[in-house]
Amino acid sequence: MLESDILEAINHLNEIKLRKANTNYHTHTFRCKHATGTASDYAKIAVEKKFTILGISDHTALPDNRWQNIRMPIEDLQNYSDEIDEASATYPQIKILKGMECEYAPEYTQFYIDELLGKYRFDYLIGGAHFFPVQNEWMGCYSADNTKANLFAYTDYIIDSIESKLFAFIAHPDLFGNFYLKWDKETISCSRAILEAAAGAQVPLEINGYGYRKEMILTNDGFRKRYPLDNFWELAENYEISVIINSDAHKPEDIDKFGDAFGLVEKHALKVITEF
């Protein structure tokens, strides 16, 4: 290796380390019913920890109030928007962005564009597949059966989400690790399809810190993380993709708990972005 290459690699790693704990675009408030804290609670801790950008990105309200057990009702959307505006006014020393984590579905496209991005002036939307369609029924990523058919359906859904171009990035693209417990030729093929779609559309993929804080899952090969899947991100080395790291905080004190996401980036020389 040339000396110039070594210096470039060192500078790259140093740059990544400097970025470790100053941005987070993936946080959830009490409104999602499985998290705690308000936008101001997050902002207060973000300022204390010297963050430069904080994104509040609860699970989106939906016009038909679908999946009500993990999201605010549509009637609460205005309050959520106002709460983020109030946090921005209270903590002007940090850039606070207004976001939502959204399931992609064609019937919601105009709602996302006209209401969230238009009327409420959201700064960004995250694509997050907690559910995916299988033969006209929605399957949950935490309850789906360990089948190839579900893996293929999940993959198609993530690709559709990417190609919609609605989302600033795709959260936890390897969430299929919750239900598909093997790393085999099908997993490799599906992972490559997701990575290829992200590279083609130039949509960043997220390494999600929440997976490091969750209970391990038992597979035939022993215990492993549900996600992030190391094998998935090893494949990502071969694609021209951008990676964003977030903690997916469900309480304010988890705002800087990224697990070993930065180690994963360094290991596979992935391109990290902190703004989009």
Describe it for me?
With 276 residues, the protein is α/β, with parallel strands linked by helices. The protein has one domain: TIM Barrel (Alpha-Beta Barrel). Helix content is 37%, strand content 17%. It is built from 9 helices and 12 strands. It has helices spanning 3-18, 39-48, 77-90, 109-119, 148-163, 185-201, 210-213, 230-236, 261-268; strands at residues 23-24, 53-59, 95-102, 124-127, 131-134, 137-140, 169-170, 205-208, 217-219, 222-224, 242-246, 271-272. α5 (148-163) runs parallel beside α6 (185-201), α6 (185-201) crosses α8 (230-236) and α8 (230-236) crosses α9. The longest helix has 17 residues, at 185-201. The two termini are 32 Å apart. The relative contact order is 0.14.
CATH class wording: Alpha Beta
Oligomer designation: single chain
Record the strand order, biggest sheet. 1-2-3-4-7
Secondary-structure-derived class: alpha/beta
Large-scale geometry: globular
Largest β sheet strand count, sense and barrel closure: 5 strands, parallel
Descriptive terms for the model:
276 residues, 9 helices, 5-stranded parallel beta sheet, globular, alpha/beta, 17% strand
Produce a short descriptive summary.
This protein has nine helices and twelve strands.
List the helices and strands and how they pair.
Blueprint: H1 3-18, E1 23-24, H2 39-48, E2 53-59, H3 77-90, E3 95-102, H4 109-119, E4 124-127, E5 131-134, E6 137-140, H5 148-163, E7 169-170, H6 185-201, E8 205-208, H7 210-213, E9 217-219, E10 222-224, H8 230-236, E11 242-246, H9 261-268, E12 271-272
Parallel strand pairs: 1-2, 2-3, 3-4, 4-7, 8-11, 11-12
Antiparallel strand pairs: 5-6, 9-10
